[in-house]
């Protein structure tokens, strides 16, 4: 069993990730308790979309045949070790431990989402033009066009449009700034959630814009994010703990360095990402 304060820090860091996440909340996440090593291949089950019919008919069933994706957990990332005093941490309350957990969670969240964005921009299909210069305007270009593309891909309801600054401006020009009120304004400021229009959730992310590209569009089961726990040291099993929630896991580790006589903690995550390039598309400017 890990040191109790390590588990508290790990859970608080995981809470920080989900409370501040943008892209992580838009993809299929998969966590299993089986220990994995960097470079190992794992299989992720993608969610099914059941059909709906009138009730009261003879029983016929849809075969359970979920799609799967094989990906490699090739990214082993860690936060820079933080020098701490183990005795102080062991006696600290939850509020004090949050001070250590928050920067760990935020650093890992930003790192995972950077990796997600790198994968998302690999979509090959697009709206607009490869070398476009004209900014979209009006509902037909901002909302109808991606909806039509989604429908052509037979996408399930969970559809996401990640918008750069240019597309974000076009969105609010189309739908009006009156959407910025109350809880909506809070979510926009904290997590970049712009709103839901025509069955799509729009998320603001400055980093997605590059050249003619002003956004990416996809549905949840077009992208898989898998995280796995790492092997715990047999010599010091109580110095590492892995916690998970809603398909995402992270590890927090503590150790003593005899050379410097200092104690350290760090957060770690072993993960892999795979986007099905035929199930999403880029949002480019028009020619």
Set out the fold topology.
Blueprint: H1 4-20, E1 28-31, E2 40-45, E3 68-73, E4 75-78, E5 82-84, H2 86-91, H3 94-120, E6 125-127, H4 138-152, E7 159-163, H5 165-175, H6 182-191, E8 193-197, E9 200-204, E10 213-219, E11 223-228, E12 240-245, E13 248-257, E14 262-275, E15 280-284
Parallel strand pairs: 1-11, 6-15, 7-9
Antiparallel strand pairs: 2-3, 4-14, 5-14, 7-10, 8-9, 10-15, 11-14, 12-13, 13-14
Helix pairs in contact: 1-3, 4-5
Descriptors for this entry?
alpha+beta; single chain; 6 helices; 6-stranded mixed beta sheet; 2 domains
Report on the structure:
The chain is α+β, with helices and mostly antiparallel strands and 287 residues long. The protein folds into 2 domains: 4-47 and 67-119 and 224-272, no CATH class; 123-222 and 278-284. It has helices spanning 4-20, 86-91, 94-120, 138-152, 165-175, 182-191, and strands at 28-31, 40-45, 68-73, 75-78, 82-84, 125-127, 159-163, 193-197, 200-204, 213-219, 223-228, 240-245, 248-257, 262-275, 280-284. Strands 1, 4, 5, 11, 12, 13 and 14 form a 7-stranded mixed sheet that branches. The protein has a 6-stranded mixed sheet with strand order 6-15-10-7-9-8. The chain has a two-stranded antiparallel ribbon with strand order 2-3. A hairpin with a 2-residue loop joins β8 (193-197) and β9. α1 packs across α3 and α4 (138-152) crosses α5 (165-175). The radius of gyration is 22 Å and the shape is globular. The model has no long low-confidence stretch (mean pLDDT 87).
């Amino acid at each position: 069993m890990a040191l109790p304060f390590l588990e508290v820090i790990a859970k608080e860091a995981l809470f920080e990730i989900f409370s501040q996440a943008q892209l992580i909340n838009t993809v299929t996440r998969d966590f299993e308790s089986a220990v994995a090593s960097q470079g190992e291949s794992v299989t992720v089950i993608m969610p099914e979309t059941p059909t709906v019919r009138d009730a009261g008919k003879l029983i016929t069933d849809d075969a359970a045949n979920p799609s799967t994706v094989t990906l490699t957990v090739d990214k082993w990332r860690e936060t820079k070790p933080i020098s701490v005093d183990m005795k102080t941490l062991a006696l600290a309350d939850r509020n004090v431990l949050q001070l250590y957990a928050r920067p760990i969670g935020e650093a890992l969240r930003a790192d995972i989402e950077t990796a997600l964005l790198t994968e998302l921009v690999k979509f090959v299909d697009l709206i607009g033009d490869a070398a476009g210069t004209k900014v979209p305007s009006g509902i037909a270009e901002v909302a109808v066009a991606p909806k039509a593309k989604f429908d052509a891909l037979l996408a399930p309801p969970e559809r996401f449009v990640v918008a750069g600054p240019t597309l974000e401006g076009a969105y609010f020009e189309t739908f009006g700034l009156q959407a910025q009120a109350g809880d909506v304004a809070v979510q926009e400021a904290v997590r970049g959630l712009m709103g839901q229009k025509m069955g799509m959730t729009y998320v603001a992310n400055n980093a997605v814009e590059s050249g003619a590209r002003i956004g990416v569009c996809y549905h949840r089961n077009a992208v898989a994010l898998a995280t796995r726990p790492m092997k715990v040291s047999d010599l010091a099993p109580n110095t590492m703990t892995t916690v998970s929630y809603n398909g995402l896991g992270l590890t927090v580790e503590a150790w003593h360095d005899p050379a410097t006589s200092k104690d350290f903690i760090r957060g770690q995550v072993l993960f892999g990402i795979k986007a099905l390039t035929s199930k999403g598309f880029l949002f480019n400017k028009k020619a």
